[in-house]
Amino acid sequence: MAEPTPAVAAAIEGELRLLDPLVRASAELLASLLHPEFREIGTSGRLWTRETIIASLTAESAPRPGPLTASRMRGSQLCADLVHLTFDTESKGVRSHRSSLWRLTQRGWRLYFHQATPFDDDSLVDPFAGPLAET
Question: CB of 86 within 8 A of CB of 8?
Answer without folding.
Answer: no
